[in-house]
Amino acid sequence: MTKKTTKPVKKAKAAKKLPSLAVVGATGAVGTVMLDILSKRKNVYGEIRLIASARSAGKKLMCRGEELTVVALSPEAFDGIDIAMFDVPDEISAEWAPIAAKRGAVVVDNSGAFRMDKKVPLVVPEVNPKDIKKRPKGIISNPNCTTLSMIVAMGALDKKFGLKELVVSSYQAASGAGQPGIDALHDQISKVAGKNLGSVAKDLRGVITDLGPFPAPLAMNVVPWAGSLKEAGYSSEELKVRNESRKILGMPKLKVSATCVRVPVITTHSLTVHATFSKVVTRKAAQSALKKAEGVMLYDNPEKKEFPTPADVVGTDPTWVGRVRQSLDNPKAIDLFVCGDNLRKGAALNTAQIAELVAAEFSK
């Protein structure tokens, strides 16, 4: 008689705990977009906690079809939180991101507080996703919206042709200056509406006396300035494009020259880019690389007057590229026009994508 053997019963694997998420600055312009993005993307989180200033505490906001109550910013607000996305001004992030990290959260910060910190990675998931692992401070930084409007396309071209130099002019929307910028442009447009535009143009400063956050009237105008004054006459926005592009691409000696201009558009930054490479790059080859690139929408048919404008791009996620041309003077250079919604990919979406990469670590 043979002895029966019984196989040990395999225990079912316990379900992985979904990480908890805090959205800090949930009631702001970028925070509002963030809640919309979280509601539309695949859900990779358990609890979602909304955090804002004390004056916003108690407000009810919808996220993923659920009404959530905003809680006041405090150290205790981060208890039990695995990932914290910060959509707040630099000074708030500088103070509170380290506190959140000490309470155990991985911080994904959308401000400029940590972008140039050597111990904080500056990440664009389509370009340098592996850098999220290098976070000794528990903080990952999100690039400036102007840089983000072009860097996905530039990263794709760099991989194919070897980027050497960038000469950039930006056309930045009023929302890049936050809600005060949006409010100022709306107010200024109302001031000139219904008036004789020829007369207004001759005395624009007389008609528009409240400049808001801008150094000159923005309605019916362009202002060759964004940010604060830095060395050698450059603005902070211009230096961000230079320094952040170098860090994201891992090219500390990349030549970058930028001029930032504010234009009377509510949302979506645009840029003209003259890019020089180590290899010959034809228009067709550049278009092919861009067409295949993740996060890029090639819209380039000038024969039919088809190219991106802010009116086409606002509310969408990709970096849109058009007007691709090989330089007439240098076969290793191309010129192109780029548009990106500065509140989506330029801020909230990239932050959300970074946070999703961190969330994936919890399932391993």
From TrEMBL:
Residues 20-135 form the Semialdehyde dehydrogenase NAD-binding domain. Homodimer. Substrate binds at residues 172, 262. Belongs to the aspartate-semialdehyde dehydrogenase family. Phosphate binds at residue 115. The gene is asd. It comes from Candidatus Planktophila sulfonica. GO terms for biological process: 'de novo' L-methionine biosynthetic process; diaminopimelate biosynthetic process; isoleucine biosynthetic process; lysine biosynthetic process via diaminopimelate; threonine biosynthetic process. The active site is at residues 145, 269. NADP(+) binds at residues 27-30, 55-56, 175-176, 342. Its EC number is 1.2.1.11. PANTHER family: ASPARTATE-SEMIALDEHYDE DEHYDROGENASE, DEHYDROGENASE, PUTATIVE-RELATED. InterPro entries: Asp_semialdehyde_DH (IPR012080), Asp_semialdehyde_DH_beta (IPR005986), NAD(P)-bd_dom_sf (IPR036291), Semialdehyde_DH_NAD-bd (IPR000534), Semialdhyde_DH_dimer_dom (IPR012280). CDD domains: ASADH_C_bac_euk_like, VcASADH2_like_N. Catalyzes the NADPH-dependent formation of L-aspartate-semialdehyde (L-ASA) by the reductive dephosphorylation of L-aspartyl-4-phosphate. It comes from the Bacteria. It holds the Pfam family Semialdhyde_dhC. It catalyses: L-aspartate 4-semialdehyde + phosphate + NADP(+) = 4-phospho-L-aspartate + NADPH + H(+). Keywords: Amino-acid biosynthesis, Diaminopimelate biosynthesis, Lysine biosynthesis, Methionine biosynthesis, NADP, Oxidoreductase, Threonine biosynthesis. This is Aspartate-semialdehyde dehydrogenase. One of its GO terms (molecular function) is NAD binding. Pathway: Amino-acid biosynthesis; L-methionine biosynthesis via de novo pathway; L-homoserine from L-aspartate: step 2/3; Amino-acid biosynthesis; L-threonine biosynthesis; L-threonine from L-aspartate: step 2/5; Amino-acid biosynthesis; L-lysine biosynthesis via DAP pathway; (S)-tetrahydrodipicolinate from L-aspartate: step 2/4.
